[in-house]
Design goal:
mainly alpha; two-stranded antiparallel sheet; 1 helix; rod-shaped
């Protein structure tokens, strides 16, 4: 019985080692899975942060362009006001010259 007892002990020891090895493998796989999940979540968070930063940059750019367009619009409006004011003055002077040119003395020129 001594030999069988040693064989049983050896088999029991081998089973424990195999079980311990399986537990280690399962723990390693679980740890790797958790690591992959954490990296995926970190990547998602990083992409989310990058997208948020891109939206902020684009919003700022659009606001800047809108401000510049408003300034340009005001400049164009002021320039038109000045141009039409000058044109009105020239029109009045031309009308006066035409009126003087058409009448000479008491007779109207034809």
């Amino acid at each position: 019985m001594g030999v069988n007892h040693c064989a049983v002990k050896a088999a029991s020891y081998n089973a424990k080692v195999a079980t311990a090895a399986m537990i280690e493998v399962i723990a390693a796989v679980a740890g790797a899975s958790i690591s992959v999940a954490a990296l995926g979540a970190a990547g998602f968070t990083r992409r989310n942060d990058e997208a948020r930063d891109a939206v902020i940059r684009l919003t700022s750019a659009v606001e800047h362009i809108a401000t510049q367009l408003e300034v340009l619009h005001n400049d164009i409006r002021e320039e038109r006001r000045e141009t039409f004011g000058r044109l009105n003055g020239v029109e009045q002077r031309v009308s006066k010259l035409e009126a003087k040119d058409n009448w000479v003395g008491d007779e109207r020129r034809r």
